[in-house]
Amino acid sequence: MTDATKLAIKVALSLALTIFLALSFGWDKPYWAGAVVVIMATTESYGYAKQKASHRLVGTLVGAVLAAVLITNFGQQRELFFLVITTLGAFAAYMSANSAYGYAYKVAFMVAMIVCLAGGLSELYSFQLGILRLQENLLGVVCFSAVFSLLWPESSLTRLKTKAKIAKEKEAFKNVKEGQLRAIKFFCFTSVCWALWIYLPIPGSFMFPMLAASLGISLVEFNSAVFNKLLVVLYFWAVVILLQYVFLLPMLESGWQLAAFYFVNCFVIWRVFHKPEQLVMRLMGGQFLVLLTMNAQHLRPVYDINSSLQMLMHLSVLIVVMKIVIQIIESLITSNSVENQ
């Protein structure tokens, strides 16, 4: 059995087990735990994934506390709330390029935004969401760690290589100019998205600004050339997964069948697109597998394609807006460099 097949089995088993257990515990949003598994699985080794998991847990805890502070102090002041979260997001984007714990900063900001906006800026509901988010993250980490520890465990040589890679990356996180550029990209992109949400009749309540904040903090490190490919990948996975969502998922009647569905799809994604240069395909495929079918993961499944299509529309608009904003920023930087020469 090849290493790619073993890895695909481990990732698929981790995802299926996580979603099955979340449903068995009666939790309302198993896709959060599934997203944790997908993100951890896109790292290059188990040792590196464990470090990323600890950052994610710390970021989740800090983000939940930050959400409570934001709602308490700025929940009824839309303009001030927007200014504060945009500043915090720009700071997180800056630290992502200048700290070995940059991923924890990103997670803390994303969790704060999800808890604030998914809860409709309600203190009680947002507190419950924060607790649930922490539980889901912990479940994903535990399932992923258990499977990767027990099934074809990592060799000591791989651990040594991982430690060397981590040490090298810590030295690389010292780029002030790159951090400033990411902060500017995030601030401009988020400002445009909030303006669109406020002044245009965009459906979906707080979904659009919530996705904008999460997508913005995740993609600020890329240049504009990446986003054309990202749109192609977006629609490819949307077609593959939504066809199954419409024609296959409604036929599944029990938790183990749903777990088998995620196992098979995840295995195919990780086995077919196993090469390092296909990381985006794995990440987007795994995230879309979990998110576009999230209504099927409720205790009482709802097979309504409208919410999935609405999310697809939001993501399409956001990627186009981000491409335009980053292109403008890059062109301004290029013109300034030419003038200085």
Give a description of the structure.
- By secondary structure, the chain is mainly alpha-helical.
- The protein has helices spanning 3-24, 30-41, 46-74, 78-95, 102-118, 123-150, 156-172, 176-199, 207-219, 226-247, 255-272, 279-291, 305-340.
Give a quick rundown of the structure.
With 341 residues, the protein is an all-alpha fold. The chain contains 13 helices and no strands. 79% of the residues lie in helices and 0% in strands.
**N- to C-terminal distance:** 57 Å
What's the total helix number? 13
Measured by DSSP, the beta-strand proportion falls in under 5%
- What is the tally of beta strands? 0
The low-confidence parts are none
Mean pLDDT: 82
SSE pattern, N- to C-terminal: HHHHHHHHHHHHH
Key features?
341 residues, mainly alpha, globular
Would you spell out the secondary-structure blueprint of this structure?
Blueprint: H1 3-24, H2 30-41, H3 46-74, H4 78-95, H5 102-118, H6 123-150, H7 156-172, H8 176-199, H9 207-219, H10 226-247, H11 255-272, H12 279-291, H13 305-340
Helix pairs in contact: 1-2, 1-6, 1-11, 2-6, 2-12, 3-5, 3-6, 4-5, 4-8, 5-6, 5-9, 8-9, 8-13, 9-13, 10-12, 10-13, 11-12
